[in-house]
Design a protein that fits this description.
Layout (H helix, E strand, L loop, with lengths): L1 H13 L11 H11 L1 H15 L9 H20 L2 H4 L3 H23 L1 H4 L1 H6 L6 H27 L6 H4 L2 H25 L3 H14 L7 H8 L7 H7 L1 H13 L12 H26 L3 H4 L1
């Protein structure tokens, strides 16, 4: 037995050293690694979607039930009982459009935050680019978003207010604003959640606050008219130009045809373009923070 051990050590002594893990390639190296592992990313997305609705009688129908219930509550209480529908024509389309896009943002951030911890078993057993875990949450959120988007388009047909091509031009930039910023925040929080497990609970509170701070159940015009000339006028540029507000306004511009130009800030398309560029910069820095923190993931988990 001792001769066998001696032979193994002799063989190992002559074996060339091979670097393990990720080579130093910066952000582009990470992008290249994720692209090379795109099949694994696809498998993780499918696994997460299947496990989420495993043993459920309604399956993927639950993707629609929650936003439709929210729509019914807001339409009845805010729209009919409190009278918000009188100030916002086609109130149901307005709310559902906002809930659809905000649901994408919320699901990306919430899902990505817990993604690294949820995949602790795989993370400890095999090396893959760790960004795959939060990105799988992004993929699952996009799948659910696509289903809700189909329902939104059907609703616009039912209300005979199908958007024109001019309206739909706002769809892509509005979605990109939310997608880029949601991914950036999700990647950052997924790393922080490994070290601070309270982060997942803080995200739940943050998502609730951000929803009510966005023009989903009320109009941007209402905020503009009440803030202009008042003591809170200085907040208006911050409120208007934050990426979630811009994304939802752009989404409303795409699918809510009952709103006039006065319902939106000037140069909305330009504002969204700037928000996308700023989001890409934020995504770069969030990925670099993730790369710095990922070295101790296996030990912390």
């Amino acid at each position: 037995m001792s001769s066998t051990v001696t032979e193994r050590f002799a063989r190992l002594r002559d074996e060339p050293m091979v670097p393990a893990g990720r080579p130093a390639g910066g952000t582009w190296g990470s992008v290249r690694e994720v692209f090379q592992q795109r099949q694994l990313l696809d498998l993780l997305i499918r696994r997460d979607l299947k496990s989420r609705y495993k043993d459920s009688a309604l399956g993927f129908a639950w993707t629609l039930i929650r936003p439709l219930v929210q729509l019914g509550i807001y339409w009845l209480i805010l729209g009919q009982i409190l009278g918000s529908a009188r100030a916002i024509p086609e109130f149901a389309i307005y709310i559902f459009a906002g809930l659809t896009l905000y649901g994408l943002f919320s699901e990306i951030v919430s899902g990505a935050t817990g993604s690294v911890v949820a995949n602790a078993g795989l993370l400890k057993k095999v090396y893959v680019p760790r960004e795959i875990y939060p990105l799988s949450a992004v993929g699952g959120a996009l799948f659910n978003f696509a289903i809700q988007l189909v329902i939104l388009l059907i609703a616009t047909l039912a209300f005979r207010s199908f958007p024109t091509f001019e309206n739909l031009a706002f769809f892509v930039p509005a979605t990109l604003v939310i997608l880029v910023w949601g991914t950036a925040l999700g990647i950052l929080l997924s790393a922080l959640n490994v070290y601070l497990r309270d982060m997942a609970y803080l995200v739940e509170v943050l998502m609730m606050l951000l929803m009510w701070a966005s023009p989903i159940v009320y109009s941007w015009q209402m905020v503009f008219s009440r803030a202009t000339g008042g003591p809170w006028e200085w907040v208006l540029p911050i409120y208007t130009n934050n990426p979630i507000t811009l994304g939802i306004l752009g989404f409303h511009r795409a699918f809510w045809t009952a709103g006039g130009p006065d319902q939106y800030p000037d140069h909305l398309m330009l504002r969204m373009g700037i928000a996308i560029l700023a989001g890409l910069v934020a995504l770069f820095f969030c990925q670099r923070v993730f790369a710095r923190l990922q070295g101790n993931f296996a030990q912390e988990i």
